[in-house]
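Sample entry (61 residues):
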Amino acid sequence: MPKMTLSHMEVSLVFAVVCSIVMGIVSKRTNIDRIQYGLYTFGCFIVALFGLGWLMYLGHG
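Predicted structure, serialized as tokens:
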């Protein structure tokens, strides 16, 4: 079985997608609300990912 190596960014994106899907499914009742909430949470994950990344980059140097 081949070994799969992912970068930190790729793993973070996979985590954001999976968490957004799960949160959309378990927290809303209608399909359109689930899709909207899933996209909203995915956007929040991405903003947090880049925001914290820049914060760590600026704080390190």
